[in-house]
Amino acid sequence: GIRDVAVTGVQTCALPIYALTQLRAIGIQRFILLTGDRALAAHEVGNALGMDEVIAEVLPAQKLEVVRAEQAAGRTVMMVGDGVNDALALAGAEVGVAIGAELNEVALGGADVALLGTDLGRLPKMIGLADLTRRVIGQNVLIAFGLALVLIGFAAADRKSTRLNSQSRLHLVC
């Protein structure tokens, strides 16, 4: 699952501290604020939110480089972004989440998930639903595999029974 790092390029005022707390509680270990904003403002907001790292004044291609560096360090990356400037990084992350009241087509094209509105407090619920979906799919695969084995067993037993019956009839006819 997505438990190593979340990189965000969204407007920092939309990221409530409770959402970060919930995300940490479900196992996300590292948060990076990745923004094109000026360093002083970005660090002030990042520190107030408790970000693990703040990288400011970056261009879209540099955001993708940060995502790639986190992946090269062995981390699974969920990128959360709200604009055209995030599209490359959204596409490069294991999970790209486009968020915003007015999502644009470029950001949506690079994202795996689109969340309407700006409430990042919905991210923990989204991750919980994804985990639940993955568990249900796994259970369904196991049930289907078990059912297939049972049906193959019945088919093999029926084939053997049919063969024995036909051999018996042939024997009686002779």
CA-based gyration radius: 26 Å
Number of extended strands: 6
Give the ordered list of helices and strands.
Answer: EHEHEHEHEHEH
The neighbouring-strand order within the major sheet is: 3-2-1-4-5-6
Quick one: biggest sheet?
A: 6 strands, parallel
Total helical elements: 6
Low-pLDDT residue spans = none
Shape: elongated
Mean pLDDT: 82
Structural class: alpha/beta
The fraction of residues in strands falls at 15-25%
- Helix proportion: 55-70%
**Distance separating the two termini:** 67 Å
Overview of this protein structure:
The protein has 174 residues and is α/β, with parallel strands linked by helices. It is 55% helix and 16% strand. The protein has 6 helices and 6 strands. The protein has helices at residues 17-25, 39-49, 60-72, 87-92, 105-110, 123-173, and strands at 5-8, 30-34, 53-55, 77-81, 95-100, 113-116. The protein has a 6-stranded parallel β-sheet, sandwiched between helices. The radius of gyration is 26 Å and the shape is elongated. The model has no long low-confidence stretch (mean pLDDT 82).
